[in-house]
Every structure is written in structure tokens, then in C-alpha cells.
Amino acid sequence: MTAPKLDGRVERGDQTRRAILDRAAAIASVEGLEGVSIGRLATELEVSKSGVFAHFGSKEELQLATVRWAREVFIAAVITPAHRSPAGLRRLWRLCDAWLDYSTRRVFPGGCFFASVTAEFDARPGRVRDAIAAAHREWQRYLEESIATARELGELSADADPRQLAFELDAFTRATQDALLFDEQGVYTRARRAILHRLRAVATDPAVLPKSPR
Amino acid sequence: MTAPKLDGRVERGDQTRRAILDRAAAIASVEGLEGVSIGRLATELEVSKSGVFAHFGSKEELQLATVRWAREVFIAAVITPAHRSPAGLRRLWRLCDAWLDYSTRRVFPGGCFFASVTAEFDARPGRVRDAIAAAHREWQRYLEESIATARELGELSADADPRQLAFELDAFTRATQDALLFDEQGVYTRARRAILHRLRAVATDPAVLPKSPR
User: Fold this and answer.
1) A16 touches chain B (CB under 8 A)
2) ipTM of this predicted complex?
3) pLDDT tens per residue, range A174-190
4) Fewer CB within 10 Å: C terminus or N terminus of chain A?
């Protein structure tokens, strides 16, 4: 009858692991992944260094696990809510809108986790850079597929190019990183206006979209 | 007759200072400004630490001088070439085009200096963040003024909003930071296509603009 005790230990281990990754992602969004170290996490979370080390083994493994964790947080904050809207143009708009909400609400204290760590690692080859690039590419592909679906449903003009349009929508959302630099929220309104304007230009029925940004 | 000797010393000092800042900006574009330290620059440039220290006094002063240096490099690479085109829509397009050239040519080895350090400092209050924000805002204002001029010259539709349009053009140029992450150049074509499409939609005479991106 040792199973319950073992389960308890596994559960506590999982909780510790989650607490470490949550803190690591928060730090990385403000200071970058280089600011994330086993020693610092141990101090801030008041656990032993060997405890943190047992979960991740190395700084690089910790950084990779942090990228995976941030990806899950992003999916829960952006992809899942958008799925409440029907597939097509409505969901495409909700995806962009949920992204802007995720940035406004500071799901990560330093703004978008991926915007922070992309600039940090884009010129530094290695496994961490590859993991960041893969997560970023996954988001862009998801946008492209959502555009393609809206077009197949006849809600977007047949000549709308999914890759080009995804580039533009992604550019508008990411440019809101300025809100952090200038402590101003107007940039979110400008991003919503830009996205709605762009989508309206290719929508077969623009009435599906909100009239104006919130 | 000591003046020539003194001049020679001043000139050598200026050369050293320029060499330090050039190296500091290159490092910062790849690794961020936190990667820039007096000790590292002394080692890489084979000068004494006290020599580097004499020029800047502290790491923060060195970081601030690096931001000012990068601003000058940006002006020489982007603003000056655009001034060869006449004021108005032609110059506005050339500004965006020169920005994309500056990024493609890797004027800074890590892509746009400001894109790298903005993500690093946007959530860290202080003098360095303020200097980065001021440089960034200056570029956006310059774009806004160029749009306003093109409108006053009757080359852009009267209802084109300079601040909104500047946000969108800036977003398209900055999104090319992906070229570093994915080692692909297609993103520059997508950015030029997006900018030309946007400008054509508000141009009173779209024939002023190139037909298609290079």
C-alpha cells in the first residue's frame, strides 16, 4: 500500500515543477531566458538548488522546458478562447483579438514571452533558438490554416494569400510590444483597427466583423 | 608647438571610442546590451580596461553611448538614403525600403539593433530604456511626419491617418526580424508587398510606387 504515498510525492513534484516553470517564464518575459538560472529560481522559490537541478539537470534543459511551458500558456490564453467562435472569419478575428488580450492582460509580466525571447535568441544558433523558432512558426502556420479555412468557407476573397495575410496580421499583433516601452495602451486600439481594416478588405461579408475596435 | 601632437592624441582617442562603440553595438544586436561590458570590450579590442573605462566611466554610460551610436548608424543607413528621393510618397516608400535594406544587409550583425534591445529593456525601467524608447519614438514620429507631408502634397488621400499608417508600416518592417529566426529571406518580400499594398490603397496616384517588390 505504498502507491498513495508515492502518488502524493509525484504530485508534489509536479507542483514544484510547475511553480519553477511559471516563475522561469515570468522572469524570461522581462529579462530574457539568460536571466533564468537554477540558482536564482531556487532562491526565489525557497527550494534547494539540488531540488531544481533534479527537475531539469542543466540550464539549457530548464530553458527548453520554459519554452514548452510558455507554449502551453499561450495555447490556453489565445487558441482555446478563439475556438469558442465558429471556424472561419469569426474565429480568425477572435484569434487576433485574443492575442491582443493576452498581451494587454500581461499573462506574462514582460508582455509576450515569445517576443522577448525571440529578439534574445534569433542570432544565437542552438537548441533553445530552434525551440523558439518552432513555436513561432507553429503560431504562424495556425494563422495561415485559419485563413485558408475562412477562404474555403467562402468568407474570404478567393485571392487572399494565407501566407501573406498571416504575415500582416502577425506583424500588427507583435507591434503592440511598444505598449511596454511607452506605457501606453493606444497601440492596442491601433492594432485592432489595422487588423479589422485588413480583414474587411478581403471579407466577402464584412458585417461578420465588429464595426470598430473596442 | 604641442598642438599637432595633442590633436593626434585626440584623434586616436576618437578612433578608439568609435571602435569601442562599433563593437558594442554589434554585440548588443546579437546578445543584448547586457552582453556589453567594459572588460569584454577591452579583451576583444585588445585595449586596457582602464582605457575603455576612461571613455565611458560606467557600464550604464557605455550602454547609453551605444544607443546614441546605433541611432547615428541608423540615420546614415535609412534616413539619409531616403532623402535622395523627393519629399512625399516617393520618399515615404524609400524610407520603408531603406529600412528593409538596412535589415537585409545586416548593418548590425544581429539584425535591427533597436528590435534586439527593445525586447531586452522594455520591461526594465531606467535611463537605458528611456533612451531606447526615445530613439524608437523619434523614428515613428519621422514616419508620421513623412506621411503628413505626402498628404499635404496631395499624394495621399486626405483621410489617411498618419499615426495609424505609421503604426502599420512600422509593424511590417519590424516583423522581418523573423528572417534571423528562420534563416529565410522571403519575409522581406512579404514586408515589401504589404507596404506597397497599404500605400497603394491610400495613394492618389499609385503609379508613383514600384509595381511589385524586388
Assistant:
1) no
2) 0.88
3) 998 877 777 778 999 99
4) N
